[in-house]
Amino acid sequence: MGDSSFQNCNFSDYLKLNYYPEDILNYFGYQLIDENLERGFKQLAVELIALDKGIGIEAEQNLLYGAVSIGKILQFALLKRQEKQVKQDLSLYRVPNDLEDLITISVAIITGVKEENEE
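Now predict its structure.
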């Protein structure tokens, strides 16, 4: 097998981050919450709205994505900027059980945002 930058990577260290690096944060906000998902979702919605109000986010980008987590459970959110709507994904994803789904969702979010900006 070829050399991989993820070969010796401890993914649990990455999952403890409050935010992804700035280049990914432009597409995907991530917030760790120690309390409960509902309260965390409300906080995430406020943060997505704050990002929408102009902390360096491209104006052409209509969708902002986020996720809230309590331990090993994640829930996604979406802010539709033009419609001024925050949508809550009702599905819950567990780490590591749903890691494949989480990677698929993350890739879809990142590639979808790139496609949206190219239009």
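The CA atoms of residues 14 and 77 lie 20 Å apart.
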